[in-house]
Design goal:
With about 375 residues, the protein is α/β, with parallel strands linked by helices. The chain is built from 16 helices and 10 strands. Pfam families: VWA_CoxE.
């Protein structure tokens, strides 16, 4: 086994494959794990025996070296992978645990990775379960769907592509070319890092106070998922539901019908802080927000303790590339962010925009790649 390259899983003994799988899990969730660290991890476990799971854990900490600020996330991944624990704990005092409903996208995501791996008066905190059927407009968002992927902010990928000049010398291919030409010195081969669109994460408030807007928001979310391959969509009210897999169905009517079946808390109460903290407590979901453009579609009328909402937004702001709140209340020219919750989160937001119309939302989403003054600057008159 080469110390500088990760082994082929098919060449490993059966007992070593879970160790290799854990390292791959960390890499999928954004941990910087090099191939030699994977090899070192398995060698460390071999040297330790191991006598217990604590030995495996210590070897993982020593060789895979998670960043201090992601230690809790690392521990959660370890217990999930080796112990099968999947419970999500919501931070907060005296709050019941928020139910999280995943749409089964985990297996689908793993297969995709393997394939590609080369109005406020209705607001309350009471839970009310109901279902709704959604109808769709087949042509309204077609142009937006075509443009959204190219309009998202971009980041530098770790993958590289060939280039005629610039970047860095591809030493391996350059040397191979020299050997193939009997020692003559040809032009060097160059490679540069790709730029790829950042992930777009959309969180949709489906509580009673948003009843007039959620159907349009789901149509917009379908166009987002169809146009941006790595987009993620969740709904929240008193529960949290992942809708991405349902919205990947190309036919909009079928996709919205599946989404309507997944969500149990249509038009009920709202627990914004608790559900957003529930999202962040699941490592796989939290990873969706890291480096992403996060857009929350909500009136932000938190009937509970605004401290929970402030904590959740603070953590989203620390992870996201750009954090935006689109509220339909901003469509009224008399609107001011004067509630306790909005005043608390305003300094943390990059954008506070009008979410009362699909036309306005599509224009905003298509402008995410352009920098904008933060929300506090734009709404200074409210502070």
């Amino acid at each position: 086994m080469s110390p500088t390259s990760a082994p082929d899983p098919s060449d490993l003994p059966q007992a070593a494959r879970p160790l290799f799988g854990f390292a791959r899990l960390l890499r999928r969730h954004g941990f910087p794990v090099a191939p030699e660290q994977v090899t070192g991890f398995m060698q460390a476990v071999y040297l330790l025996g191991p006598r217990s799971m604590d030995d495996i854990r210590e070897a993982a900490l020593a060789m895979l070296a998670p960043q201090p600020d992601r230690r809790d996330e690392f521990e959660a991944h370890f217990r999930s992978w080796f112990y099968g624990e999947a419970a999500a704990v919501v931070e907060g005092e005296g709050e019941d645990e928020t139910e999280i409903k995943d749409d089964g996208g985990a297996i689908e995501e793993q297969l995709e990775i393997q394939r590609t791996e080369t109005g406020g008066e209705l607001s309350s905190a009471a839970e009310q379960l109901s279902r709704r059927e959604l109808q769709s407009d087949r042509s309204r968002l077609t142009n937006f769907q075509r443009r959204i992927s190219d309009s998202l902010p971009r980041r530098r990928s770790f993958r590289t592509v060939r280039t005629a000049s610039g970047g860095h010398v591809d030493l391996r291919r350059s040397l191979r070319s020299i050997l193939g030409s009997d020692g003559d010195i040809p032009s060097p081969r160059w490679r540069k890092r790709q730029t790829v669109p950042r992930r777009l994460l959309v969180l949709i408030d489906v509580s009673g106070s948003m009843k007039l807007h959620t159907a349009d928001y789901l149509r917009l979310a379908h166009a987002v998922v169809q146009g941006a391959p790595h987009a993620e969509v969740f709904s929240f009210a008193t529960r949290l539901t992942r809708l991405t897999s349902a919205l990947r169905v190309r036919d909009r009517d079928q996709a919205l019908a599946r989404a309507s079946e997944l969500v149990d808390d249509w038009d009920g109460g709202t627990q914004i802080g608790a559900t957003l903290l529930a999202f962040l407590s699941v490592p796989r979901f939290s990873a969706f927000a890291r480096g992403a453009s996060v857009v929350i579609l909500s009136d932000a009328l938190e009937r509970g303790d605004p401290a929970a909402m402030q904590l959740a937004v603070q953590r989203f702001a620390a992870r996201a590339h750009r954090l935006s709140l689109a509220t339909p209340l901003a469509g009224d020219p008399r609107f001011r962010p004067e509630t306790a919750a909005l005043k608390a989160i305003l300094p943390l937001l990059d954008d506070l925009v009008d979410g009362s119309s699909i036309a306005g939302l599509t224009r905003f989403l298509l402008s995410l790649a352009r920098s904008a003054p933060d929300a506090k600057t734009l709404w200074r008159r409210a502070s």
